[in-house]
Specification:
Largest sheet: 8 strands, mixed
Structural class: alpha/beta
Bound molecules: benzoic acid, magnesium ion
Number of strands: 24
Helix content: 40-55%
C-alpha cells in the first residue's frame, strides 16, 4: 500500500526509512541499531534517512543547476553481447531518437556537441577506438585497477564472485574500460552486460550474486568521475534494476541501490510495460518518461499469398458445377503447396472444404495486426499510420469514437521530447497508467510517468468474467482435438498481462480451479474462496502455475490468493472425479511422504531476487547439448513454491512429480507488439515448462497460446502461432522493411526473431521445418538481402546464418544438399565481413587514476 498507491499519484523514488526491528537488532549497516523488546515499535533507520536526504539534495542541486553546466549521463545497453545488439532497445530506434534528443538539448542550452548525423553518432559510440581495444564500443575512459580497488566499498563481494580486480570483462588486465563517448557535457555510455552470458549454467547455482567489476565501475564512473547531475536510461531496458537485492524497500545491501547511489534517474520506457517499469521505479528510483510503441497495421498479403488469394477469389466466384472447377482447384492446391500451406500430393479429395479452410487462413493472415518498424522519439506517427492504428482501435469493444479523436490528436503531437527535457531538470512528470495503445488510449499522451495499478482491486469483476470465458475456450480447444477434459494445466503467469488486463490470466487460473477472489468490507482483496461444484458445473481442474519473477514482485497478494485457492481445492471434501486438485494432492502426499499443505502447493517461481529461467540464455549462447538441459535449467530456477504464507520453499522434486500429470501447457498473449517469436521470454517461460513437462511425462504434451490481442480472443496451438507469426511478420516484406528502415537495429530484431524461433524448436519441437527453409531463403540465400543485412549489422546478420545452421545441426530441419551448401557459403561470407571490420579513428580514452 505504501509503495503502489503513491506511485499512482506520480511519486518517484519512495524510500522506506523506518520499520520494526526484532530483538536481535539490525546488522544491515554500520549503524547496528539495537533491537527492541516490543516488535511493535516502529524505528527510524538512520542509514536510509541519510540516503534519502542525499537523494533529495542531489535532486535540488539538479533543479538549481544552470543548463549550460548540467552534466547528463545517457545509458544505452548491449544485450546479448556480440550480437550486434549494442545500442538497441525494445521498439525504439535508439540512435535516431538519441540524435533527436541531443539536438533538442542543444536548443535548450545544454553544452552538448551534436554529431552531424545519426550515422556519425552511431559510429562515434559503437566504433571509434573499439577495435583497437577489442571492445564492443568506443572506449571513453579507462579506470586503473588500483584506483577501482581503492574506491570500491563492496570490493570483497565483487571479488568473491568475479575474482581479483579488474576482473575479466572490459579489461586490458590492469584497467577497466568504460564504453561510450563524451559529447561535451553529455556522456553516452554503454551499460556493461551481466557477465554470465558465456556461462549461463553458472547462474543456476549462484547465490548472493554481485555485478562485475566493469558493471560497478561504470556506475561509479558516472556518479563520481563524470559527476553526472542526472542519469538517463535510454529505452527499455537495462540490467541495473534486476541486480540482486530486495524487491522493494531496498536497503544499503541491495546492489541497485548501491549503484544508482544518489543520482537522479530518468528512464525512457515503453508505454506498454507497466510491470517491468515498476521495478525501475522501485529498485532504482526512476522517473519514467514513456515512449509510444511502433504503429501497428494489418499484415496484408505478399508474393505468392497475393496470387493464391486471386485464385481463391476466382474459385469462390464460380457457379456450382462449373467445368473449370477441377483445374482451378488443382492450381490452388499447387499454389498453396508452394507456400507450405498444404501438401502437393495427393490431390484434394474434397476441394470445397480444403479451399474454404485456405480462404479462412488467408483472411486471418491478411488481417493480422503487426507492428511496423521502430519508434523514433520526436517523430510521431504520420497520418496514414495513425489512420491504421485508429481503425484497429475502433474494433476494440469499449473504445469510443470520442477517445479515438482524442487519440489521433495526441498521437500526432510530440510530448516525449518535452517530457524528457522536464525530467532532466528534475521536474514533476505526470503519472499515467500503462497499457497497450489499442485497448487503452488513455496511455496518451506519452512522455509521462508510468505507474502500475491498485493491487487491492485485481482481478476486477470484468477480468473474472473474461477469465472464465477464456478458460472455457482453452478447454474446448483442447477437447476439439479429441482429448479428454484436462485434469492438470501448466499455466504461465506474467505481471504485464495481468496488469494490462486487470488480472485476466489470474482469473483464468481461478476459474480452472473453480475459485474466486475474496474481498474484505472495504473491497480490498484478502484471499480466495471456492465456487461450489454445483455452480461450477464441471470438475475442478488442477493448475500448476509458474510466475515470472516480475509477477512475484508486483503481485504478492495475488500470489497468496492463488496459493490459497489451490489449498482450498485440495482440502475440500469432494469426490476425486470432480476435484482433480484434491485427487492429485492426496496422491502427491503419499508419493512424497509430505502433508497435504505441501502437496497442495501449486504456485512456483524463482527464488526471491532472481528472474527468468535461463532457458533463453542457454539458447542464445548455444551452450547446451541435450534438450533436457533446458528442462533442468527451468526446474532449477523455477522450483520455488510460494504457499499461503511464509517464504518460498525450494521444491524441485514436488514440482517434477506434479509436471508428470500435466496435460497441456498454456500462456496468454496480450500485445500485438509482442509475439511469441518477438522476444525470448515466451520460450523461456512457456517453452521451458513445456520441455519440463515433456521430460516428466516422456511424451510431448500440447502447448497452447491464448491470443487475446483482438476481439474475444483465440486459442492456437503453439505450432499454429509460430507459423502465423512467421507468415505475417518474419517473411512479410511489410514487417522486415519497416525494421530495416532503421538500419542495424532492425537487423538485430530480425536476428532475434530467428533465434526465438529456434528457441521454440528446442523447447517444444513444434516448429514446422518449412519455416527454417523460408527464413534461409529470405535472409541468407537472397544475395541482395544478405549483403544489405551484412552492411547494416555484420554481427547480427552472421548470427542469423549461424543460427539457421545450428537449427539444422540440432535436427530441427533437414535442408536439401544445395540449400545447405548455399547457407554455409552465405554464413562464411558473413563471417568474413565481420572479420574485415576495420578500426576507425584511434582516439585515446580518458585515463582515470587515483590521485
Ligand atoms: C512480466 O511482466 O511478468 C514479464 C515481463 C517481461 C518478461 C517476462 C515477464
Ligand atoms: Mg525484460
Amino acid at each position: 500500500m505504501m509503495v503502489a498507491i503513491p506511485e499512482i499519484d506520480g511519486a518517484t523514488g519512495p524510500m522506506v526509512f523506518g520499520g520494526r526491528i526484532g530483538a536481535g537488532g539490525c546488522t544491515g549497516c554500520a549503524h547496528r541499531c539495537a533491537g527492541t523488546l516490543s516488535e511493535r515499535v516502529m524505528r527510524p533507520c538512520p542509514e536510509r534517512i541519510e540516503h534519502l536526504a542525499e537523494r533529495v539534495a542531489r535532486k535540488a542541486r539538479l533543479r538549481r543547476s544552470a543548463v549550460a553546466s548540467r552534466k547528463v549521463a545517457i545509458v544505452l545497453y548491449g544485450f546479448p553481447p556480440n550480437a550486434g545488439a549494442v545500442g538497441t532497445a525494445a521498439y525504439l530506434s535508439v540512435f535516431e531518437s538519441l540524435q533527436h534528443m541531443l539536438r533538442a538539448m542543444r536548443t535548450e542550452g545544454y553544452a552538448v556537441e551534436v554529431p552531424a548525423s545519426v550515422v556519425d553518432l552511431r559510429e562515434m559510440v559503437l566504433k571509434g577506438n573499439a577495435a583497437q581495444y577489442g571492445q564492443a564500443a568506443n572506449v571513453a575512459a579507462r579506470i586503473r585497477a588500483d584506483d577501482f580497488v581503492a574506491r570500491e566499498p563492496f570490493l570483497k563481494e565483487i571479488e568473491a564472485q568475479w575474482g581479483p580486480a579488474p576482473g575479466r570483462h572490459q579489461t586490458d588486465g590492469s584497467g577497466i574500460f568504460v564504453l561510450g563517448h563524451h559529447f561535451g557535457n553529455v556522456f553516452v555510455g554503454i551499460q556493461p552486460v551481466f557477465g554470465y552470458e558465456g556461462d549461463p549454467m553458472r547462474l543456476l547455482f549462484e547465490r548472493g550474486f554481485a555485478p562485475t567489476h566493469a558493471f560497478t565501475a561504470f556506475y561509479r564512473y558516472m556518479a563520481q568521475d563524470f559527476d553526472a547531475d542526472v542519469v538517463l536510461h535510454f529505452g527499455m531496458h537495462g540490467a541495473l534494476e534486476f541486480m540482486p537485492g530486495k524487491q522493494t524497500g531496498l536497503s544499503a545491501n541491495c546492489w541497485p541501490d548501491r549503484l544508482i547511489a544518489d543520482m537522479p534517474n530518468v528512464y525512457l520506457y515503453a508505454a506498454n510495460n507497466p510491470s517491468e517499469s515498476a521495478l525501475a521505479k522501485r529498485r532504482i528510483g526512476a522517473t519514467i518518461v514513456t515512449y509510444l510503441t511502433p504503429p501497428v497495421a494489418k499484415a496484408g498479403l505478399y508474393k505468392g499469398l497475393v496470387d493464391l488469394k486471386a485464385s481463391l477469389n476466382r474459385w469462390r466466384g464460380l457457379p456450382p458445377g462449373a467445368p473449370e472447377a477441377q483445374d482451378l482447384g488443382a492450381l490452388i492446391q499447387a499454389q498453396a503447396a508452394e507456400l507450405d500451406l498444404c501438401p502437393a500430393e495427393p490431390a484434394w479429395f474434397d476441394q470445397v472444404r480444403a479451399t474454404e479452410k485456405l480462404w479462412r487462413d488467408l483472411i486471418e493472415y491478411e488481417n493480422s495486426l503487426i507492428p511496423l518498424g521502430l519508434h523514433v522519439v520526436g517523430t510521431p506517427p504520420d497520418a496514414a499510420e495513425r489512420a491504421e492504428l485508429i481503425a484497429a482501435m475502433a474494433e476494440v469493444e469499449g473504445v469510443e469514437e470520442l477517445a479515438l479523436k482524442r487519440a489521433d490528436k495526441l498521437m500526432s503531437e510530440d510530448h516525449e521530447t518535452s517530457g524528457l527535457l522536464r525530467a532532466l531538470e528534475g521536474r514533476f512528470i505526470r503519472p499515467v497508467p500503462g497499457g497497450d495503445l489499442l485497448r487503452s488510449p488513455q496511455i496518451l499522451p506519452t512522455g509521462r510517468n508510468l505507474h502500475a495499478f491498485d493491487p487491492f482491486r485485481m482481478p476486477t469483476a470484468f477480468a473474472l468474467k473474461d477469465g472464465a470465458a477464456q478458460a472455457q475456450r482453452l478447454i474446448e480447444r483442447h477437447m476439439a482435438s479429441g482429448a479428454e477434459t484436462p485434469r492438470s494445466i501448466a499455466l504461465v503467469l506474467w505481471g504485464a498481462d495481468n496488469i494490462k488486463s486487470d488480472g485476466g490470466p489470474i482469473a483464468q487460473a481461478l476459474a480452472l480451479m473453480g475459485a474466486r477472489p475474496r474481498f474484505d468490507g472495504y473491497g480490498r482483496l484478502c484471499g480466495a474462496e471456492l465456487i461450489p461444484l454445483e455452480e461450477l458445473g464441471r470438475p475442478r481442474i488442477d493448475v500448476v502455475m509458474t510466475l515470472s519473477g516480475i509477477f512475484r514482485d508486483l503481485l504478492p497478494l495475488q500470489t497468496r490468493m492463488l496459493a490459497e485457492a489451490a489449498w482450498l481445492a485440495a482440502a475440500a471434501d469432494e469426490p476425486a472425479d470432480l476435484n482433480f486438485v484434491r485427487a492429485h494432492a492426496l496422491d502427491y502426499a503419499v508419493k512424497m511422504g509430505c502433508d497435504l499443505e505441501t502437496a497442495a502447493l501449486r504456485v512456483f517461481s524463482n527464488a526471491e531476487g532472481a528472474y527468468g529461467s535461463n532457458v533463453n540464455q542457454l539458447i542464445d549462447s548455444g551452450a547446451w547439448n541435450d534438450e533436457d538441459e533446458l528442462a533442468d535449467a527451468f526446474e532449477k530456477r523455477k522450483c520455488f513454491a510460494y504457499g499461503r504464507k511464509g517464504a518460498p520453499v525450494q521444491s524441485a522434486k514436488l514440482m517434477a512429480t506434479m509436471l508428470a500429470d500435466v496435460d497441456l501447457a498454456y500462456q496468454n498473449l496480450e500485445s500485438v507488439e509482442l509475439g511469441v517469436t518477438t522476444v525470448d521470454h515466451y520460450f523461456d517461460t512457456l517453452g521451458g515448462i513445456g520441455r519440463a513437462v515433456k521430460r516428466a511425462r516422456g511424451v510431448q504434451t500440447p502447448v497452447y497460446i491464448g491470443d487475446q490481442t483482438r476481439g474475444d480472443g483465440k486459442v492456437r496451438t503453439l505450432s499454429e502461432q509460430v507459423a502465423l507469426e512467421t507468415r505475417t511478420r518474419a517473411l512479410n516484406p511489410k514487417w522486415f522493411e519497416g525494421l530495416l528502415k532503421h538500419g542495424g537495429e532492425g537487423v538485430r530484431q530480425i536476428e532475434a526473431q530467428v533465434t526465438n524461433t529456434m528457441g521454440w524448436s528446442a523447447t517444444t519441437g513444434q516448429v514446422d521445418p518449412w519455416i527454417y527453409q523460408r527464413l534461409t531463403e529470405t535472409f541468407v540465400l537472397d544475395e541482395t538481402m544478405r549483403r544489405r543485412l551484412a552492411e547494416l549489422n555484420p554481427q547480427a546478420s552472421a548470427r542469423v546464418a549461424n543460427r539457421l545452421i545450428e537449427a539444422h545441426e540440432r535436427r530441427y530441419w533437414q535442408p536439401d544438399a544445395a540449400t545447405l551448401e548455399a547457407l554455409r557459403r552465405g554464413a562464411e561470407e558473413l563471417e568474413d565481413t565481420l572479420e574485415g571490420v576495420i578500426p576507425a579513428d584511434r582516439v585515446n580514452p580518458v585515463e582515470i587514476a587515483a590521485e
